[in-house]
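Hi W., the S-adenosylmethionine complex you wanted:
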Amino acid sequence: MAQLPPHHQLVQTDDGSFTLFSENFQEACHSTSGAKSETLLHYVKGCRVPERLSPHSTFTILEVGFGLGLGFMTTLEILADLQGKWHFLSLELDRDLVEWFKEENKDHPLLSGLTWIKDSILELRAPNFILTILVGNARETLPLYAQDSKIKWNAIYQDAFSPKKNPILWTKEWFELLKLHSATDVLLSTYSASSSIRKSLFESGWIIHKGEKFGPKRSSTRASLVGESDPDILLQLERSPVLALTDGNILVKA
Ligand SMILES: C[S@@+](CC[C@H](N)C(=O)[O-])C[C@H]1O[C@@H](n2cnc3c(N)ncnc32)[C@H](O)[C@@H]1O
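Structure:
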């Protein structure tokens, strides 16, 4: 195994798969109940990726936080034998993580062609899929990339660190940006069920649904742009005194 990225420790989780603990954020990239099982449940299944892959158009997935690449690797494994093209666009602040992933996979039959096409963009073009990783602060890299490429995503893996540790990727303004570049059939999925992030989503125009439980967490969140929000969640949000996270109020707290 290549040397671990600085300021990270490797942690084995309950299903045998590994995650990384970040010393900078003081948080692990996945639930210790099972990194791979969580990724499958919340993201690949949560966004109904395999059943929505189509032979007629490219299915686009946005991942918020590339981490150790488990979201991508799990998606690749599930989609490997299915018909249809897909584009996996991922956002990562820490260049060392991305360099580590590249080094770890330099002999992988499908991933050895990963190439820096710009100083901050690592990309791979395979026959059935494209992987693009934008390195830098997602609040800056994503708007520029989305505007230039005119991309619209069908699935969003909202997998930043927790709202307490990583609030800039959970604000109303962030979710407005995600909505702006989403296809009508988009499904957004996240492990968080906190009322503040549900309010951020709702106030930025997303329709909110309850997601599956995983490990010790009792619930999670799915969001879409069509249909109606779950009435129980709306009632809960109405009764909750917490505020939606906004770029303004997280700066005040920091
Ligand atoms: C929970 S981990 C993602 C795990 C990943 N999805 C996986 O399956 O391996 C969150 C990631 O978000 C990254 N991150 C934190 N703040 C960011 C920012 N402002 N822009 C882009 N990435 C960020 C962290 O460096 C970390 O790798």
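Residues 29, 39, 63, 65-71, 91-94, 97, 137-139, 159-161, 166, 168-169 surround S-adenosylmethionine (CB under 6 Å).

W.
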